[in-house]
Specification:
Bound molecules: magnesium ion
Number of helices: 14
Strand content: 15-25%
Low-confidence stretches: 1-5
Structural class: alpha/beta
Number of strands: 14
Shape: globular
CATH architecture of the largest domain: Alpha-Beta Barrel
CATH topology of the largest domain: TIM Barrel
Amino acid sequence: MTAIASSPSNDSIAWMRISSCYLPLATPISDAKVLTGRQKPMTEIAMLFVEIESKDGHRGLGLSYSKRAGGPGQFAHAKEIAPVLIGEDPSDISKLWTKLCWAGASVGRSGMSTQAIGAFDVALYDLKARRAGLSLSKLLGSQRDSVQCYNTSGGFLHTPIEQLLVNAAASRERGIGGIKLKVGQPDGKLDIQRVEAVRKRLGDHAPLMVDANQQWDRPTAQRMCRIFEQFNLVWIEEPLDAYDNEGHAALAATFDTPIATGEMLTSVAEHGELIRHRAADYLMPDAPRVGGITPFLKIAGQAEQAGLMLGPHFAMELHVHLGAIYQTEPWVEHFDWLEPLFNERLEIKDGRMIVPTRPGLGLSLSEQARAWTREIVEVGKRA
Ligand SMILES: [Mg+2]
């Protein structure tokens, strides 16, 4: 009977700290969008962090992010909608997602507005799991203690071919299972040379993927997919524009090599359309980009029902947990870029990423993250 006073159901959200942090990248990053002239090399990532504290002192940390533009917009939107959470029960995560969505309904249910919601949603899940003393994957219902992982950061297009081979070998030595190479350059011959060289160096059976970052038109994608069939790739990623569901579906139906896409989509509805069109063999949702864990779970449920495989995009620190709950074995993307933001590191062994057993996401913000923070706003009062 005495437990009622401390029951989580009586708890409420008392305080939030929203911060805008800019993570610098050691080397300017180029994928095919830079080589086709659509974007400039990327030099930093804008992080949106939300820290939530309840009346009873339970805490959660959430994150969202944007690349190139969007950071100030996400922060501004988060700041504007945050007050609607004060006094709410932090356990009611679905209700709170909807409440945040309605608070900003006139700017839509996808894109920047929902990405701001994503940071709150992840923080609420982190709080709930920490309070339960469970890792996020255990809270959600885990299928496995580790997930297959592949490296992306070593295979970008600004990396010369000799260095590409060194990076691929180093990743494999570190215990990362698969290697992804960026392709989609205006001169497709260069793409083929790079893939051929890495395939030769790693041998026939090492898991290898390619990613064209949406830079082929339909005829080029047909031609390149046909050429790439010989390399026994795990997948060909974003061969076409992210919203070309019909085009992706035609490639998926034509070629043996699986087609992967979905990272650019920013809502459950957009992923639902992709799934309905059977436009991917591997679906690549990005939890912060679609608005957090709440929408991610809805997407994963639809993907599972449709028999798709899963390869969540970026933010391995979060997706290691979300990959662990998917029915079939997913591939989680190893990107070491966000590591300096946190005090903890993921363990990698025998081609797999070990799902952290620490409560929640198992993450705490580093001093470095605080130092890179440009703007902070606090909402509510600490209990
Ligand atoms: Mg990609």
